[in-house]
Amino acid sequence: MKAILGGNVKVMITGSAPISGDVLDFLKICFCAPITEGYGMTETMAGSCLTYYDDPETGIVGGPLSCVKIKLRDIPEMGYYSSG
Questions:
Q1: Per-residue pLDDT tens for 10-20?
Q2: Residues 6+ apart with CB under 8 A from 58
Q3: C-alpha of 69 from chain center
Q4: In this predicted model, what pLDDT tens digit does every residue of 23-67 receive, in sequence order?
Q5: Beta-carbon neighbour count of residue 50 at 10 Å?
Q6: Closest Cα partner for 19 from 64, 65, 58, 63?
Q7: In DSSP terms, which residues pair with 41 in a beta bridge?
Q8: CA 66 → CA 18, 31, 49, distances in Å?
Q9: How far apart are CA 51 and CA 73, in angstroms?
Q10: pTM, 2 dp
Q11: How far is CA 19 from CA 29, 36, 70, 80, 81, in A?
């Protein structure tokens, strides 16, 4: 698979929608390259969070980028609490 992509892939980035941890682990093996996961919203400048390049854990979106501040807010009427 790595050769099909030209053999020079150093890292891949996924975003836009959640990806299953099992699928992500499989793709990392197929492409012989680390795959980082990102999260963001068009309304907030796109990429806000990104996993570390060498993070072996899947199913997370990582921490905020150095240029981003994130604030957790309680929204009691919706049952959302920052403590959860």
A1: 888 888 777 88
A2: 21, 24, 25, 37
A3: 17
A4: 988 988 888 888 888 888 777 666 788 888 788 888 787 888 888
A5: 20
A6: 58
A7: 46
A8: 22, 28, 9
A9: 23
A10: 0.66
A11: 15, 11, 22, 24, 25
**CA of 72: how far to CAs of 7, 20, 34, 48, 75, in Å?**
42, 25, 29, 14, 10
Q: What is the 3-state secondary structure (H, E, C) of the chain?
A: CCCCCCCCCCCEEECCCCCCHHHHHHHHHHHCCCEEEEEEEHHHCEEEEECCCCCCCCCCCCEECCCCCCCCCCEHHHCECCCC
